[in-house]
Specification:
- The chain is mainly α.
- It has 16 helices and 6 strands.
- A two-stranded parallel sheet has the order 1-4.
- Helix 4 crosses helix 11.
- The longest helix has 27 residues.
């Protein structure tokens, strides 16, 4: 049954991919791959199964359950609850960035079951690892920043993130109100998105293979675990409004962190938003160049931020080599930047988190006020 489902998944992915193609690969991608492979000839450097990842996983999971236990079983006053909720929201995002993300991309380990287990940490914190694979790994990573193909840059009528999206009158203020909506991302995800995708068999307007057999069990099992942690267990010790308020603060913190980190990588002034050549269903640039020019790094030299964000401040390297553990991204970025410079490919980066944040703000304002 599992083999049949995997075959169906591959067929559907190929059918979807046929709808849009990229220009033929040049020597750039070949040379970049050669240099990256050369980097891992060093026996002290591992592409996956890095000891640092296992240590990080232990730290993040212990932090998650430790903060959760303090919040549910110890905290009694607002001045205890509020900081614990905010910290729990940040650590929950850290699990997504630092554990689930690598596992889902098969970058955590050479072992398939270890990757699967780590990817399932998303089910623990309220998402579906199966649906996320389709939405993120396939649609976003293949068609980055292409309107109508990359669902991650489509927020519906609520905002205009791409020049190809229609502009509505109230988008004039989106550089103010979208920050508030970012906080609702996790709540919408928990209660609506995954269930809607499961029922309709679509992510946005794109078909995907609905989960079956063990994947369906994981989907509902994960939801059961999450809603038990978020509501059923806390309600045994606290009132309804206290539980709802605490959940809301954790979820809003999580939503803001997840949204902002993603937006700084793709929805900024420096990122390209290409469209297929009219009538050809073809992107003008080759895939590797497309990934680089639609993606922006930030805070490359901030080691603490790199640790907390699971290397997602190195999104250029992640998009080029998603199956390499993020522990390697700082060294990888030196190779990628040098190769880009030699081949005349635009390598985008912001020196700091704040410069990236300001660029995102200016882009939102531009998209809301300029046709």
């Amino acid at each position: 049954m599992q083999v049949n489902e995997s075959h169906q998944s591959m067929v559907l992915e190929k059918e979807t991919a046929k709808k849009l193609k990229f220009a033929k690969n040049s020597g750039f991608k070949t040379e970049l791959r050669r240099r990256v492979d050369e980097l891992f000839q060093d026996p002290s450097r591992k592409a996956r199964d890095c000891p640092q990842m296992y240590a990080k996983t232990i730290i993040l999971l212990l932090s998650f359950f430790g903060l959760y236990s303090l919040l549910v079983f110890v905290a009694q006053t607002w001045w205890q609850v509020i900081p614990l909720c905010i910290m729990l929201g940040v650590v929950t995002a850290g699990i997504g960035f630092g554990i689930q993300h690598d596992g889902a991309h098969h970058a955590y380990s050479d072992s398939l079951w270890v990757n699967k287990l780590m990817a399932m940490s998303l089910d623990l914190i309220g998402g579906s690892s199966y649906i996320w694979h389709w939405k993120h790994n396939f649609f976003h990573h293949t068609y980055t920043n292409i309107a109508g193909y990359d669902m991650d840059v489509d927020v519906g009528v609520f905002g205009r993130l791409s020049p190809s999206h229609p502009q509505l009158a109230f988008h004039h203020w989106q550089h103010y109100y979208l920050w508030l909506l970012y906080g609702l991302l996790a709540i919408k995800w928990h209660f609506y998105d995954d269930f809607h995708c499961l029922i309709t068999g679509k992510i946005g307007d794109r078909r995907y293979l609905r989960p079956k057999s063990s994947n369906l069990v994981i989907f509902f099992g994960g939801k059961l675990v999450f809603f038990s942690l978020a509501f059923a267990i806390p309600l045994q010790f606290h009132g309804l409004w206290q539980v709802l308020g605490s959940y809301g603060l954790v979820a809003v913190t999580l939503g803001v962190v997840l949204s902002v980190v993603f937006q700084l990588a793709h929805v900024v002034e420096e990122a390209d938003f290409p469209l297929p050549i009219a009538g050809a269903s073809l992107i003008e640039k080759e895939w590797a160049v497309h990934q680089i020019e639609t993606t922006v790094n930030f805070s490359r030299h901030n080691h603490l931020m790199t640790w907390l964000l699971g290397g997602l401040n190195f999104q250029v390297e992640h998009h080029l080599f998603p199956n390499i553990c993020h522990i390697n991204y700082p060294e990888l970025s030196k190779v990628v930047e040098k190769t880009c410079r030699e081949y005349g490919v635009k390598y985008n980066q912001h020196a700091s988190f704040w410069s990236g944040l300001l660029s995102h703000y200016r882009w939102l304002r531009k998209m809301g006020t300029t046709c």
